[in-house]
Amino acid sequence: MDIRKIFEAISVELSAKFQKTMQIKHNGGKGDNRENAFVDFLKEYLPNKYGIGRGEVISPENEISGELDIVIFDKDHCPLFLKSDSHSLYPRESVFGAISMKSHLDSAELKDAYNNIASLKKIISTQGFTNSLTPGMSTGLNPVVPVTAIFSYATNRSLEAIAKQVNDLDKKMSNINLRPDFVVVLGLGIIGPNGRIRNNFNTYNLPSDPDKLSLSRATGRHTLLRFYMQFLDELNSITQPKLDLHSYFDMPSIVGEYKVKKHDKLIVKFNGEEEASVKRLTLSAINKIVKNSKIVTLEQHFINHIGVLPSGAGKIYDLSSYIYEYNPKNKPPLQIQRDDNGHPIGDVNTFQPLHIEIDGNKYAIDGNSITDDDFEENPDFTVNELMSH
Question: Of 238, 216, 236, nearest to 228 (Cα)?
């Protein structure tokens, strides 16, 4: 049996389907039919653990990729937040790879596909994780870098011309790891590293020689088989982290130009209100906080907040890390007073911080320096719902 002959026949079939789409006048219809033909191939020949879909990828930080023509995801373990044949929303931890589909790979289409792939890679985690690859033993793993490719049915350029543009696009990238792993033209060849990019423990090692990144291989009739084997080899080298759904439930909200967290579940009772309700900080309040906060070390923040550095704090916290303090009245550290019943209460004239996050930075906001006008009702939660967590 000659496997090459089988894939050569599949390649001819895909090319024939592409030619049929040329008779469709509506561009959207053409694109859907081309992608469907390739999706059918992937569904038939990739292992069952890999799901094939289309849509966007989202991170726990509420970052979203561009629209991806083909997404390869963990079908067995990870849920989809939104599912349809035309568009799904995939949690970052479920994604193994993505492919940008093109009809004719001219210079504009290649540049567009580069940006599309980069939109996915920009939101992947940079944090390593541990996983139990064998019972009773945890192994440290590098963050996952999805396998990515640009796949075209045809081009009016030579493989060498495409490779030259690939090299030029690579040189312009602020982070070379954002590039697609492979550029493929059906029946013509593959541009990209010849050897494995991913190895044990999710390591991702691109060749340091730029020419090897844009290495062109005129694989001709065997292009589909060679691409399939290399792409699947890279997919199978990936170990995904466990999906923490709570991180998506608690992910930051988009407020104006900011990504804000812990600002929208505040149980507040204004003067004149009979009952407390759930409120959130307004955009104008967040603007004010960002503009008027001062950055200090965590060590200095402890002193500003409670007057002393807690015993043993250096063993628990990174005291050299930074936090932004919003204390516009320069209130002194917290002083405890007691009400008429002897219950401890904070002195409103001292620094009593509320902690939130803005664009990934920690903020300590003096609770008595924000006013009723800085809040708005949050219809997404009730007091009972928050208290039940």
Answer: 236
Backbone dihedral region for residue 299 (phi beyond 0: left; psi -120 to 50: alpha; all else: beta) = alpha
Strands 68-74 and 88-91 turn out to be unpaired
Q: What is the 3-state secondary structure (H, E, C) of the chain?
A: CCHHHHHHHHHHHHHHHHHHHCCCCCHHHHHHHHHHHHHHHHHHHCCCCEEEEEEEEECCCCCECCCEEEEEEECCCCCCCECCCCCEEEEHHHEEEEEEEEEECCHHHHHHHHHHHHHHHCCCCCCCEEEEEECCEEEEECCCCCEEEEEEEECCCCHHHHHHHHHHHHHHCCCHHHCCCEEEECCCEEECCCCCCECHHHCECCCCCHHHHCCEECCHHHHHHHHHHHHHHHHHCCCCCCCCHHHHHCCCEEECCEEEECCCCEEECCCCCCCCEEEEECHHHHHHHHHHCEEEEHHHHHHHHHCCCCCCHHHHCCCCCEEEEECCCCCCCCCEEECCCCCEEECCCCCCEEEEEECCEEEEEEHHHCCHHHEEECCCCCHHHHHCC
Residue 334 — very low, low, confident or very high, per pLDDT cuts 50/70/90? confident
pLDDT digits 0-9 by tens, 350-381 = 999 999 999 999 999 999 899 999 999 999 88
| 253 touches 349 (CB < 8 A) | no
Q: 277-281 and 375-377: which strand pairing?
A: antiparallel
Q: Where are the domains of the chain?
A: 3-246, 254-387
Q: Has residue 85 got a pLDDT over 90?
A: no
Q: Residue 7 in contact with residue 15, Cβ under 8 Å? A: no
Residue 147: pLDDT band by 50, 70, 90 thresholds? very high
